[in-house]
């Protein structure tokens, strides 16, 4: 669990620091969200 939090913290800290578009950091945030949100959200009871 520590490694996952370390990675998320570093990715968030890099947001807005990249000179190019699209941002690789933003793509990483999206990928992390796609992996984590489905396991925590229950749309159907």
Number of helices, where a helix is a run of at least 4 consecutive DSSP H or I residues: 2
Mean pLDDT: 80
| Strand residues, percent | under 5%
* Global outline: flat
Find the count of extended strands (DSSP E, 2+ residues): 0
Kindly provide the radius of gyration, computed on alpha-carbon positions and rounded to a whole number of angstroms.
Answer: 13 Å
Q: What structural class do the secondary elements suggest?
A: mainly alpha
| End-to-end distance | 28 Å
The run of helices and strands is: HH
Tell me what you see in this structure.
With 45 residues, this protein is mostly helical. It has one domain. The chain is 67% helix and 0% strand. The protein is built from 2 helices and no strands. Helix 1 (2-14) packs across helix 2. The protein is flat. The mean pLDDT is 80. InterPro entries: ARM-like (IPR011989).
What's this, in brief?
By secondary structure, this protein is an all-alpha fold. The protein has one domain (1-36). The protein has helices at 2-14, 24-40.
Helices and strands in order:
Elements: H1 2-14, H2 24-40
Helix pairs in contact: 1-2
Key terms for this structure?
ARM-like; 0% strand; flat; 45 residues; single chain; mainly alpha
